[in-house]
Amino acid sequence: MQVSHLTVSHKKDLRPLIEDLSFVLQKGDRCAIIGEEGNGKSTLLKLIACPEEAERYVEYTGQIHTGGAVLGYLRQELTEGEKAMPVYAYFTESPGYEAFSMGELAELARAVSLEMGLLFDDRPVGSLSGGEKVKLQLMRVMMARPDILLLDEPSGDLDLEALRWLEGFILSCGLPVLYVSHDEMLLEKTANMVIHLELVRRKTLPRATVQRVGYREYVERRLRSLTHQEQMARDEKAQFEAQQKRLRELKDKVNRTMDSLSRSEAPHTGKMLKRKMHAITSMGKRFEREQENMTQMPDVEEAIAMHFPPCGYPEGKRVEFVLPELKTPSGELLAQNIRLVLSGPEKVCIVGKNGAGKTTLMREMWETLKDRKDIRVAYMPQNYFDLLPQEQTPVEFLAREGSRAEESEIRSFLGSVKYTPEEMDHGISELSGGQKGKLLFISMIRSGAQLLLLDEPTRNFSPLSGPVIRQMLRSFTGGIVSVSHDRRFIAEVAEKVYRLTDKGLTLDDKEKLVR
Q1: Distance between CA 316 and CA 258 in Å, rounded?
Q2: For domain 2-222, which architecture applies?
Q3: CATH fold of 318-513, please?
Q4: Cα-flanking dihedrals φ and ψ of residue 220, to 5°?
Q5: Worst-scoring range by mean pLDDT, 35-44, 239-248, 301-310, 319-328?
Q6: Among 147, 160, 205, 229, which is most exposed with the fewest C-beta within 10 angstroms?
Q7: What is the C-alpha to C-alpha distance for residues 479 and 374, in angstroms, rounded to an integer?
């Protein structure tokens, strides 16, 4: 597959997304597309796999040559219609189903680590766990006998066991893979090629970098290159400023000498001083011409800037949460005898298989703790719209007083996390997942929260923003209870890890989980 000189922009506001991107995907390539939220990663996959869908909201120039290859496209999200379908209907109506024998179907199910019995289940697809949905989608994709796989965030809803399975699948499937993922460890273990989509100069200038190296090597090369460029730019700037200072001193000296000349000295000495001043002026012009070719400071899409101020967590405070039974909204029992005790500002993470009830548990904790008077609690749900009103703008959502001073403060805060002025006044429903996540973090920071309940806090942030989020939460002076399958997050933020099973919460081996 070959993409040549691809340039993409939004139809609505003509905002550029991608400019002059060219790359070739070959046999054996496992190419990761990385970049900040809203930079066009999913749009690129959609343009390749389903151009008619992408053309509803973007326009593009350039060429996409697939050479007749069959593309297997795994979307970031199922449609509402697909979620409502019984599993057996979703599966048996797949293109290519009739061409498979039961033996071939069983072999394919093993390849994607899916229980054969699930394929003929009558439950709605939307009721399956995150891992089951991804594997079912992948099974349906593979039934088309694709030549190339295009995977949009396949790791988003997977538990730790399913993430390890996905790593193995990408490495062993034998097909070229072009994929988007926010999971740094998955990228490090699988990618051997990187496409980095950036929007620099306040999201007005797209830039695309393509390198045939692994993800970790790409990040390290990029950091070394930026550090070297920045140092050269600083050195050359310091040298230029020293030259300018020396020129000013020479000019001042010449001017003082000319002012002090007597009449008898003026004709001869004056001519010499004028020639010297001319030489100094010529030197200055030469330095200015050289300045145009000086190394520039790196023009990069900077990481977000957020941090929690000291929250004043009550000294010696213990927070206890007890729940005899954890049930689904329909009344199905998920777990019993749940007890979690936080001694001081601890940072704990809850893991467990998809469908174990982790999100339900976080919601129950929020409902139980949110009205406590002895400690300020904030919540980041997995589904952001549980707390974010879709019709409001980010500024309206964050406002409490409605004063001009407050609005100015909010806009400055939003700008620091790379919101454009246009995004500040867009409806929240129009924002990317990452921008919504930033909005909830800002809300928590402004609330002065002392205990954070976070359900998959890094799931919508790019792998390049991940280190900033982890550092922010690691340095938070309050307590954190989180659900996460992000192994970097678990390794760097969590002090304790608990596993949720049907019998409750049990302490788990953190070191073993993050290997």
Answers
A1: 77
A2: 3-Layer(aba) Sandwich (3.40)
A3: Rossmann fold (3.40.50)
A4: -70, -40
A5: 301-310
A6: 205
A7: 14
- Give 404-442 pLDDT, tens digit per residue: 999 999 999 898 887 888 889 989 988 878 888 899 999
Q: Which residues have CB under 8 Å from 251's CB, separation 6+?
A: 277, 280
User: CA quadruple 55, 57, 62, 68: dihedral positive or negative?
Assistant: negative
Residue whose pair of structure tokens reads 């003929």 in the numeric block: 120
**Identical topology for domains 2-222 and 318-513:** yes
The strand pairing partners of 479, in sequence order, are 451
Dihedral sign (CA 198, 217, 295, 305): positive
Each residue's pLDDT tens digit, 184-213: 999 999 999 999 998 887 777 899 999 999
For residues 203 and 15, the answer to whether their CB atoms sit within 8 Å is yes
Structure confidence by residue, pLDDT tens digits, 465-512: 888 899 999 999 999 999 999 999 999 999 999 999 999 999 999 988
| Nearest in space to 180 (alpha carbons), one of 168, 190, 171, 172 | 190
Q: What is the largest CA-CA distance in the chain?
A: 113
Token pair of 486 as six digits: 């992000």
Both structure tokens of 439:
């909005």
The dihedral region occupied by 357, where left means phi > 0, alpha psi between -120 and 50, and beta the remainder, is: left
Q: What rounded mean pLDDT belongs to the chain? A: 88
